[in-house]
Amino acid sequence: MSRSIIHWVMLGAVLVAFSVASFGQIAVGISVRVGPPALPVYAQPICPGPGYIWTPGYWAWNDDDGYYWVPGTWVVAPLGMLWTPGYWGWGGGFYVWHAGYWGPHVGFYGGINYGFGYGGVGFVGGEWRGGAFYYNRSVTNVSVTNVTHVYNRTVVVNNRSTTSFNGGTGGVQVRPTRQEEAYGREHHTAALASQTEHEHAAGQNRQNFASENHGRPAVAATAKPGDFGRRSAVPARSAGGEYHAPAMSPKEARVNPGNRGKGNVGNNRSNDGFRSFTPPAKGTATTKNGWNNRNDSNRAQENTNTRGNQNRYNQSRPQMQNRPAQQSRPAQRPAPQRPNPAPHRQAAPPMQHGKGF
What we know:
alpha+beta, three-stranded mixed β-sheet, 15 strands, globular
């Protein structure tokens, strides 16, 4: 077996192992109650060399300080794979982050126009031909001095929007096609280590936070991941839209994973189909749901039956009806009739003392 074959087999095994280990991270998202700012307007730095694929910038989230800009950058791509950018999507009353991934095809990324080949559907900035990546110079900044595998294919871009999220009020109203859904079910790998380190480094710079730059970051793109030097960094030309500071703090806006889907959190969920329950008032007529179905005639019948039962009970015990009210202990037989019963003579003195006060 030749060395080249062994090399490709080992590379394939590494990619498969990496994919299995990292696939669970792809679906992990962040949910917040405030939407991200518009995408800033910036130029693409020149491609540093062959094998690099452009990964557009995006707004990431920090629980302490809110949204911050992760500059777009050129990344050495896994062989034969393309990058599907992540995107913010409105759903269930929250803005949820759908992480990007590597795969054989570009799947759904919310219809967001990230530019430079990512116009909202697919990717037209280049393609794999065998073991080499060819760049479309019509939409990417590639120099033939650094890269020889190039071509020119005119691309008509109709979407000039800088909206950074899908769905909801003001978002991009696009749903995935059947083909994009099929691409989404393919074997994928999560972001490379260089990409996650690039995002982490961006979060360490206060100038990248929207609260500081108001949607116009000082570093909008870099030539390589983590390279924020002057020669590599490209500033934003302008903000993609008017910046509006959130009305709530980042900690208030953050939705914990355990709270999603529980109740009407933050009044963001719809109450369609919900009707509150009000207990019926006493004495009202029978309701449709069966509550308070004991009407006045039923209660009158119950009172009559109750009195009849009580009379029968009293008749069975006549001595209880003839018992003196003030007699302290039961008598064995009825007391004789006397003008002044003894119990009343004994009770008279205390009443005389009472009048003396």
